[in-house]
Design a protein that fits this description.
By secondary structure, the chain is of the alpha/beta class. The chain folds into 2 domains: 31-349, Rossmann fold, CATH 3.40.50.300; 365-607, Nucleotidyltransferase, domain 5, CATH 3.30.420. The protein is built from 21 helices and 28 strands.
Length: 667
Amino acid sequence: MMPAAQQHFDPPPARGAILERLAVAITPRKALKVSEWADRERRLSSKGSAEAGRWRTERNPPTREPMDAMSLRSAVREVVLMWPIQFAKTEVAVNVVGYTMDHAPGPLMVCLPGEVSLNKWVAQKLNPMIEETPAVQRALTSLASREAANTRTFKDFVGGQLFMEHAGTSSRLKMTTVRTVIADELDEFAANLLSGDDPVEMLNGRTSAFPGSYKRLYISSPQLKSTSRIWYLWERSDQRRYHVPCPHCGEPEPMTWGALHWETHRPLGRPRRAWLVCSACGAEIDEHHKTEMIATGQWVPGNPGEPRRGYHINGLYYQFGLGPRWHDLVESWLDAQGDPARLKTFINDRLAEPWEDKSTASVKANVVQERAEPYPLRVAPAGVLRITAGVDSQDDRLEVHIVGWGRGLAFWVLDYVVLAGDPEHEPVWAALTELLNRPIQHASGAQMSVEAMSVDIMGHRTEAVKHYVRSRRVRRPMASFGAKANTAPILSKGKLHDVTWRGQYDKRGVHLYQLGTVNAKHVLYARLAADADAQAKWLNQAEDERAETPERLCHFSDQLPEEYFKGLISEVFNPSKNRFEKRRGSVRNEPLDTWVHAYAAAHHAELRLHRATRADWDRWEAQLLARAPKVDGEPPPDLELQAKTPPAPREPKKPAVWHDYRNRRRR
């Protein structure tokens, strides 16, 4: 019998499986990129994809590098995608979510503009990805005890958590610490939350606990250039564009809309053929070369050295079967001509470029300030024949805009004053009364006064505004508010607001007026743009052919501060919503709002400067000059004016007309 020490025991049958499991558990994770994970694990569902089945990055090569920049081993911390619609930009975000849940676990947040868009994203993008991707299902179901904690907008997985929020309120973006932030359709986020916070800065703050490993992915098609967040971020990135080689000369360059040419059917004007022209060799590039060109293309930075990665691409890169063809894009472009809203949609959604209205493109604060003229405030230049004022009420101040009007409704800004004080109390209104009743000296030496005033009633001090207008301490006061209808006239007919003790409208009470703010702002911006065009035309002329100064419609004193000009053009028109919106990073817009009120006051029923004829302007000018100081030896101005002006015929009194009517009936 063999000694016990020399006896041989066979290993248990489960030993190999145990060791294999142990080796898998202690083996470090392989360095896997997002695109590699998507090609290996991701399955597309027919619920949200045109081509269901296995994900293939080679089907849309431009998506590879942006996805890999969000990989765990990548040194890139922030990625910006300014892409057209239906270009798989949301699929990139979904791949990053699945990669994080399966391969690089950690807390992450996906943020959408509103609750509706959040629900759609969960139903059409996230849930199908989870259902069709076994690797993600394993990450979720491995925590059996916590499955009940998973909800529609929250997923708990091994090593991390997924939060899905919308940017409707600031509370949705607080109290969360994450390593990865994904914001989809960034330009649809509200400009500012109700709390006054910027949603992008709040999202950035969620990753502050991971200073060395955080990831941020911002995705959107751009909107207005002056308010676009994605454009703002892309401008401050390394600005990568996808360069493709020319099939004829091999020179790489990006495909741009300006390089696209087409021919049309003569009777219908529809595109028959579309092609690109190579800027290097001038050869025509037909669309059938597109697949091979894109497959061999690469992202080239236009602003190298910036740590933030920015990727911009347009609809010319749609692969066959994944988007419209070139001649379809040309047809949409031709159909949009003459329609600003449709043209904006095409430029934003298909070209992935921000929209800039032509009427506001040349209206810049510094350019307008450079055209300021050397005349002192509260001194009306020679062209001013009438004066109105606009007042904006805030909780702690009144802002007053005094504007002089001349022929053709050219205007001169005569003063802009901020009166500190709560409008709920009398001192600030007393200061306003003294300001508006104080005479303004004309260049001729005559004294002028404010003819009408419009004050905003939609602030927090509505009753105080009504009380001031009711007291009539200044000439022609109006309590006004902006109309909701974008087609409203500049000044609507006033409606009685006060009632008597019998419940009837008090004819001596306050009238409320609606202002067509959109129309008024269009007038201002059109005039500023016209002055800019006249200035540019004047500068382009030879010096010996130039007139003394270009004729202008808008005149500003060089004594106005820089903040005034920034506030005057602090908004930009959005044709898709048919309204004006604040520019990104702009200052307060009270100078613009008060100008609108002063312009509306010029439409007062007793002034109607917009309907004034040449004879009216001549008469007002004669009356103004007659009040000017005269040299010794000349008759008094009032007597001279009375001698030259024939007396106006008297209108018959109503009783006389009534008695004459009765007598005719008797006869």
